[in-house]
From TrEMBL:
InterPro entries: Na/Pi_transpt. This is Sodium-dependent phosphate transport protein 2A. Its main location: membrane. GO terms for cellular component: apical plasma membrane. It comes from Gallus gallus (Chicken).
Amino acid sequence: TIVALMQAGDRSEFKRAFAGATVHDCFNWLSVLVLLPLEVVSGYLHHVTRLVVATFNIRSGKDAPDLLKIITEPFTKLIIQLDKSVITGIATGDESLRNRSLIRMWCGPAPPQTAAGGVGVPPNCTASGHCRQVMALGSSTTSPGRNGQVAKAIQKVINTDLPHPFSWLTGYFAMVVGAGMTFVVQSSSVFTSAITPLIGLGVISIERADPLTLGSIIGTTTAILAALASPGDKLASSFQ
């Protein structure tokens, strides 16, 4: 809703953006109005979630594994590794390490040493390069409005129905897209806030924003990631 207010200068854009922003709110309100009375009467959510968590066979106690680290560490090591010896040296006051890079490895094989003795970053895999790509994508999507190349591509792909006889699956496919994108950014709020300006510009239609938003709610992983960080004796309760 706050993001939609940024388009308040144009009446028609604001109308579309605000409608897109309140889809998430409407879903939340309807969920509370329907599911909360059912939970109060039957307690079905409590019982169903307990049965689901029981199938995980979670091991509690001091010897329980750090699930979040086990799941994420193999992937994060493929992206970037920090040189902990540099961090330790800086913390202990070693002046020779003050200008050394903290990055030991970034996107592949260990980068070469720089002239200053720090660790270099391969030119084809730099953090600034990724940032420039992201900023360029955002600029080409929003700055030129409906005329940007990325905006036109999104408008054509997202708003197009699947070919007959699978056209009835279009909404479900949009839900999968919304869930997948939200799983990547790990926040439904980030995803819905990102598409709100595009809805205001008319790049994404309100009709297509509905299943995208529902998919983002399905794909949100923030609470699960927070539960994974819980200690072993609290893990089952956190998951439930």
